[in-house]
Amino acid sequence: MTAEPEPFLLRNERAEAYRTLRDQYLQRFQPSDSVERDLVLHLAVTTWRLHRLQSIEAGLYEAAMQDCRDVMEEEFTSLTPEAQRGAAYQCLSSKSDVLKDLRRFEAHLRRVYQNTLRCLIDLRNPRSAPLPPAAARRPFLIVDNVHDKAA
Predict the structure, then answer these.
(1) Residues 6 or more apart in contact with residue 51 via CB below 8 angstroms
(2) I need a surface site. Which of 61, 65, 67, 134 has the fewest CB within 10 A?
(3) Distance between CA 136 and CA 58 in Å, rounded?
(4) pLDDT recorded at residue 2
(5) 32 vs 110: CA distance, rounded Å
(6) Rounded to whole angstroms, how far apart are CA atoms 23 and 39?
């Protein structure tokens, strides 16, 4: 049996690694129905996307350090690793808003994760359970507070 491709995975990402993450989320949250399962899967996908952003950031720093190394030649290799990362950060920050965009997208994904988790928790909270179908509910009776005015 061949597993369905995940539409959000990039060609260079390992589907098996995502499936392991997904299975860990399903095991941890034990969804009781399709609605809970969709929320749990959304949490797993959002986590995967957050991991992707972290790897993108690391890749950007690696590329920037290579650029710095090419420009600074021998000076760069004599810098401490912290100074090399600082130079890469400075190079990245001065060239574009890519780091700012990554931070903004990361914040967005963290909000999505928190909102999805809150929905799952609320759904499991018995006080927020959906109302039964209308036929099963007792009719609502409206009583007027009209007093007889006897003279």
Answers:
(1) none
(2) 134
(3) 57
(4) 45
(5) 25
(6) 14
- Write out pLDDT tens, residues 75-121: 777 888 888 888 888 888 887 789 999 999 999 999 999 999 999 99
pTM, entire model: 0.74
Structure tokens belonging to residue 58 = 């690391």
Within 8 A by CB and 6+ apart from 40, the residues are: 25, 26, 29, 31, 120
Nearest to 25 by CA among 39, 11, 7, 9: 39
Q: What is the per-residue pLDDT across 133-143, written as a single tens digit (0 to 9) for each? A: 665 555 555 55
Q: What rounded mean pLDDT belongs to the chain?
A: 84
Q: What tokens does 142 get?
A: 């409206």
| HSE value, Cβ hemisphere, 13 Å, CA-based, for 54 | 7
> CB–CB of 36/29 below 8 Å?
yes
Structure tokens at 85: 């990362």
DSSP state of 33: S
Nearest to 71 by CA among 94, 83, 88, 95: 88
**In angstroms, rounded to a whole number, what is the distance separating the alpha carbons of residues 54 and 42?**
19
Assigned token pair, 139: 């009719």
One-letter identity of residue 24: Q
